[in-house]
Amino acid sequence: MRNILIVDDESYVRTLFSSVVELFEDYHVDTAVNGYDAVQKVMNNTYNLILMDLKMPKMSGLEAIRAIRLLQNKTPIVIITGYASDKMKEDGLKAGANLFLSKPVSIKDLKGHIHYFVEEYIVEDDPVVMNDEIGDLVIEEKEDSVIVIGSSVGGPMDFIEIMNLVTVDSFPPIIMVQHMPEGFIIPVAKEIEKKTGRKVVIVEDEAELNESTIYFSSNIDNLIIKNKKVLKEMGDESSHFLPSISGSITAISNEFRDKCIVFLLKGLSVHLDSKAGLLSAQKNESRVFALNDNSHIVKKMAEQSLVEGLTNIEGMASLIDKLSVKK
Question: How far apart are CA 301 and CA 267, in angstroms?
Fold first, then answer.
């Protein structure tokens, strides 16, 4: 069974494209009415191809493509829009689309593109540079430490696993900066609190950092740390995917220096975010660890020597245990 997702705010377009897809044997059609709806569906399903409109309410196709590339980077995406321009095409392909088409599209051409991307298109994996010989990671206990989590979609599920393996009750403040549309932040934070039993709060201005607390911030806010307090600075509202993870890592490592420990979870791309922050962390002698998962952050960062250690879920939980706040 092949699964195709059609994303368009016009019902007649969804119906037309669905009828074309259904001409193929064993093809299943799913539809979404806007980019936000599409991202939610991609979070819960696997698709062989996504047909994406661009101009839609709530979340545009361009924003959805960026989110989907963070969720499932290899899923082929074909843009089909009635608002075509050279700039729009450039932005769409840069965001991660595989093909840009202008409406109207003939049934013959649409069938050909669907067949190609579902049956013939070969996804090439990026080369992975891994270091499997780091052994047991060693970390010194330091008073007033802070843990920074850089994460994208998929990362929160790993974080839940990590925190459920942590054996201590008291640990340094954890600041989690999450790459996803702002509307997802509160539900995800509540899910983490529910499934881990740990205290999770949304970052507010002048929030004091307390031990055994997880502070959750969307990437639409740039975090500033002054005198051990977290301040928020609103980013560019025109984008749901700001490169503020770099800014957050930089600000926190500048304040805590060698007492700052950075954990990198799934989905981050060096091309979108985090590289500048990791360079700052390295300069400040902060320590950086990444999951040895097949994610972009590991593929790119390991070969640039900005990550000190690659570890697994259990390893990260162990590191938090070692940073336990002593009473």
Answer: 12
